[in-house]
Amino acid sequence: MGVFKDMLGSGETLFRDHVPLDYDYIPKLVPYREAQQRQISLCIKPLVEGRNGRNLFIHGMPGVGKTVVCKNLLKSLGDEDIEDVVPIYINCWQKNTFFKIVLEICDMMGYKFTHNKKSDELFKIIKDMLNKKSVVFVLDEVDKLDDQDFIYNVLEEIYKKTLIIITNYKEWIVNLDERIKSRLTAEMLEFRPYNKEETYGVLKERLNYAFAPGAWEDDAFRIAAEKAYEQKDIRAGLYLLKEAGNAAEDESSRKITVEHVKKAIAKFEEFSIKKKDDLEDETKFILEIVKKNSGKRIGDIFREYQKEGGKAVYKTFQRKVSKLAEDRFITVKKVVGGAEGTTTIIKHIGSMKKLTEFE
Asked: What pTM was computed for the model?
C-alpha cells in the first residue's frame, strides 16, 4: 500500500478553487497597491459628491496590477450602491473602434435598439443617458485603439466624469492628438513592478485561496515565485501555479513538487498573456499569415497577406504587426546591411522564451 498512499484518490483534487488563478480575478483587497488605489479613489471622489471628477493616466509594465486595481474600485462603486455614478470599463484590445465601444456601452446601459444605427447616433443616445448621472470611464489598453474619437467625444460631451486611461506605454500620451491632450489634463500614475517580496506575497495569497492546505512543497513555490519575479509579471506566476497543479494531478500526486514546476516552466512557451481568440478578425488573420511564413521578411509576408485576400494598406499592416509583437505573439527583428539592405524579419512564437531557461 506504500506506493499508493501518496496518490490522489478518485474524486480528490489539489485545487480548492481555480478562480483565484485567473488573470481576471478581482480580489477584495489588492495587496501592495494601497497608494495607487488611494490616488485613483481621490480622482473619482468628486463624482460621489456631485462634482466633476479628475482624469488619470495610468502606465506601467504588464502584470503589475493596473487593471485589477481599477476593476476593484469599479466593483466597489457597485457594491456600495452608489447609484448616481456609472462605472464603465472598456478593454480597448477587444473594443478598438468608436463603434465597438459605443455598442458595448449601449449593452451595459440596457439599450437594445442599436440595429442600423451609426456611431454618432449611438453616442448621442448613451450621452443623453449618462449625462443624467456621473460616469467613471476606464479605457484599458488604450494604445490598441484604432482612433481617438471616443476619447474626444467623452471629454467634450459628458458633463461629470472621471476618465481613467491605462496603457503599458508611458510614451503613448506624448503622441496624443493635441485637441484631446489640451482637454484631458490628466494626472499621471505609474505602477512599478512588484519587488521580490511583493511578488512572493501576491502569489502566496492566491495560492492559499486556490489550493488545498499543504498541497505545495516550499521549494516548488519558491521556484515558481522566483520565475515570476524574473519576468516582472504576476500573470506569469499565476500560470505556473496553475500548470504545476495540473501536472501534479495528472500524476495523481498529493504534493506539488519542484519537478511539477519544471514541467510548468517547460510548457511556458505555449503561454501568451493574450488569448488568440481575443484578437479582432483582421489581426487574427495577419497572425495566421505570419505563422505560415515565420522567419520571412515583412515585405514578403505582406505580399502573402495580399495573395490571401488581405485588404489593408502596408502602413496599417505594419501597425498591426507591431501590436502583435508588443503582445508577444510574434518577434520583430531588424537586420541591417546585406544584399537586401535594412529589413525586418518576423517570427511566430508562443511567448517569450526567458522562463524556459530553467536550471
From this structure: 0.75
